[in-house]
Amino acid sequence: MKKDNLWRKYTNEEKKKVQEVCDRYKDCLNHGKTERECVSQAVEIAQKNGYKELFETLEKGEPIKVGDKLYAVQMDKSVVLFQIGKKLLSDGMNILGAHIDSPRIDIKQNPLYEKEGFAYFDTHYYGGIKKYQWTAIPLAIHGVIAKKDGTIISVSIGEKEDEPVFVISDLLVHLSGKQMAEKASEVIKGENLDLLIGNCPIEQDETLDQEEKEALKANILKILAESYDIEEEDLLSAELEIVPAGKARDLGLDRSMILGYGHDDRVCAFTSVFAMMNLAEEVTERTLCCILVDKEEIGNAGATGAESRFFENTVAELIAATEKDSQLLVRRALANSKMLSSDVSAGYDPLYADVFEKNNAAFLARGLAFNKYTGSGGKSGSSDANAKYVARIRKIMDDADIMYQFCELGKVDAGGGGTIARVMAKYGMNVIDSGVAVINMHAPYEVVSKADVYEAVQGYTAFLKRA
Description:
The protein has 2 domains: 6-102 and 261-466, Aminopeptidase (3-Layer(aba) Sandwich), CATH 3.40.630.10; 104-244, Aminopeptidase i, Domain 2, CATH 2.30.250.
């Protein structure tokens, strides 16, 4: 079944709307390079559209009523939005779920060292990356440092034009004969992904005879103390992430695409938030929900990942406030829900056509990409949506004139990947993967079509209204 390029069907007026949505998306992408920053963006957008913090509302004893818009945050790294519908929560919700973590490099707990005239931060990569792609490009540091007195210090270095950037060095081509003979997975070792952060020793006190033994490290600590009022031990309780420096940019002479860091999966996360806001003034039959989670790239584990009880516990609070305190009703609410597990799909790249099965590949500018199943090999790790639900999704999209495609993540034995779908499906709800086709997935800079970003917002909105 051939789907035509979306740009052929858009009117000039629609193209303007595409650009408006994508400008908003790029701004979110630029200000949301970590999970914490994405949560902050989502909450800011929600509050502007009348959302209130759920637990503050409950503590005040305010009743939860139809039309209320509420949010809850877990450890500043996951967030869930609710818009209360006319039907009981136990009748089920229409849910959009996406993850907001992206492959990156993390700074270790004891990171700072100097070696042969350079100062470095020791690192550990996060998620599936091609390590060689992260060398010799400008990098920024984002995150927080938590001090023992309870102070939380936000850090962002390398995004403004007057700020320094950082780099992971690579071997010059003139001396890399042995390196070039290595397998791609071994060209750069994980322990060699250390961040170069300095080359200047601390200024010596001329009145003292003793020379500083680690003068480079001492200078970095002096800068950190002056800039952030921290000492070396405070890095033990820091969450600092290394990400590509710079903004998302229009790609192509026709400006039809976006090049940026973190499309996987923020292109689905922010479009899901936009879809929720599209309906913020409507009173819907069913309760609408959007959940953005952390840790998908490392298996959904942890207190902020999809495997945590955060979402279930939050639903339990709402059930107790609107119906009665009942675990049975909580289970019914989850089992009766319908969900789009909003995650990206591998965009067909004609330069690497051998790993794709063309009839079942996702193409850029051909609309929302649905994956009935993901996983690897023999569908390992997949939830595999049932046929009746797939038919229902097709009808919703067709009735709303949404362009969409059904696809797989490459050839059967080429590899594979997973999403949060299997985690949410354990509640018995209907779930299917849907998202945006991405080229360069998991690279420092990924590519999406502006048309697909727009179509995702429209498709997610239609699902929320009609599922």
